Amino acid sequence: MKPHPRWMTHVLLAAAVYNLAWGGFVVLWPLAPFRWAGLAEPNYPAIWQCLGMVIGVYGIGYAIAAADPYRHWPIVLVGLLGKLFGPLGFLFSALPWNAGLMLLANDLVWWLPFSLILRGALRHALQDQGPALPAAEALAGARTHTGATLAELSQRSPLLLVFFRHLG
């Protein structure tokens, strides 16, 4: 198995730094983005500060995913979904277009690299799967803790198999 390309780590670390910085900025100065966009300031800036906290938490997730993007692909998927739904929500809102400028850095620039990371993770996962064994061969090769094969056990009496698989 070949490891993930290094550019994926760099992209996710950049996303981590960006999200932590932007989230921290919004927590500390929640009214600044409204002033920049020429929008009326909200009555409850704490709601915007909560969003800043969530954005910062995404940054922590991206930093974790940077270590192994193929293993931590669900973090990238959740990030991409947020970056897709944010602009979609903007399109259906009554906000002025100049308020959408924040979408460029917050969302749109990440679409392509996050999509490519997810495509790479999918290809990696598909590579990981070897050809399926015929059932008889699989039962003959799988042994229990006592050394008996599943084929032997299934000939003695009916057998219930439970398979567990994790995503890690």
Question: Can you put this structure into words, describing what you see?
Answer:
This protein has one domain. 67% of the residues lie in helices and 0% in strands. It contains seven helices and no strands. The radius of gyration is 24 Å and the shape is elongated.
Q: What about the largest sheet?
A: none
Number of strands: 0
State the end-to-end CA separation: 15 Å
Shape: elongated
Please report which band the strand proportion falls in: under 5%, 5-15%, 15-25%, 25-35%, 35-45% or over 45%.
under 5%
* Percent of residues in helices: 55-70%
What is the ordering of alpha helices and beta strands? HHHHHHH
Domain module count: 1
Computed structural class: mainly alpha
Per DSSP, the total helix count is 7
Low-confidence stretches: none
Round the Cα radius of gyration to an integer and report it: 24 Å
Mean pLDDT: 91
Briefly characterize the structure:
This protein has 168 residues and is an all-alpha fold. Helix content is 67%, strand content 0%.
